Amino acid sequence: MYQGRPATLGAHVVLNVAAYSAEEHKMAANYKLYGVWLSGPTYKVGLMLSLAGQKFDYEFVNLREGAHQNPEYKAKNRFAVVPCLTVMATGKNLCQAAAILDYLAQATGRFAGASADERQDIREWMLWSYDRFAPPIYRSRAARRGVRKFDPATLDMYAAEGKVALKLLDDHLKGRTWVVGNGPTIADIELYGVAYYAADGGFELADYSNVEAWMARFEALPGYGKPEAILPKESKAAA
Q1: CA angle (218, 229, 41) in 5-degree steps
Q2: Cα–Cα distance, 22 to 78 (Å, whole number)
């Protein structure tokens, strides 16, 4: 007479299913980041994900071959630039690094600021970065790498503007640990993602001791990594 499967077999099956589910959950990525490892804006988003402990798949977008102009990519990012971030749970696609940082801060509850006043200050610093800080730093770097060409007068203008921006940030950081409030926020992530490339743009960070000290504090945060540690040179699934 059939007595059914042994209880030990049922337990074994249950244990195997549970183990598989745990392993599947462990490997699952919450996000997919599209970008280029040399891109400052891509680095900011990758850095935020890493600092917040969020697993993400990474897809390299070959700008030189025009991959950002492909209809499939433009359907995800209307501006045809990097980065782009896909929220795996919903399929929602996000673009523009500052907007992505703000979204992630709200979604993860990390680096968002402790009050409404702090969040207002954060927005102001992020908009200042895109207006006054990132352009001269990134464009000076692009020129030195041979990616973009500018006439000497334009290069001198970017050098002068970059120094003014670094001085403003250095003055602000005097006597402060972080840009806004008492802890790191997305304002720090945004600004660090520019300041990191200043030396590549020909700027002497040694002239800005408060900026250097702040960068050192930032680099000591759990989850921090340099671009080469966070952004691979080719597409890669979450580890």
Answers
A1: 65
A2: 36
- In this prediction the pTM is 0.87
Bridge partner list, 85: 33, 94
Angle between helices 209-219 and 152-173 (to 10 degrees): 70
Which two three-digit tokens encode residue 103?
Answer: 């979204």
pLDDT in tens, 189-220: 999 999 999 999 999 999 999 999 999 999 99
In a shared domain, residues 123 and 34? no
Per the domain annotation, does 19 fall within a domain? no
DSSP calls for 86-115: EETTTTEEEESHHHHHHHHHHHH--SS-SS
Q: In angstroms, what CA-CA distances link 77 with 28, 68, 80, 126, 156?
A: 23, 9, 6, 21, 33
CA angle 82, 187, 173 (to 5 degrees): 135
CATH number for the domain that contains residue 126: 1.20.1050.10
Nearest 5°: the CA angle 74, 77, 82 is 105
Tell me the three state secondary structure of residue 34. Answer: strand
Q: Residues 120, 209: one domain?
A: yes
Q: Domain of residue 103: give its range.
A: 27-110+225-230
Through-space distance between the first and last CA atoms of the chain, rounded to whole angstroms: 50
Burial 204-214 (b: 16+ CB within 10 A, else e): eeeebebbeeb
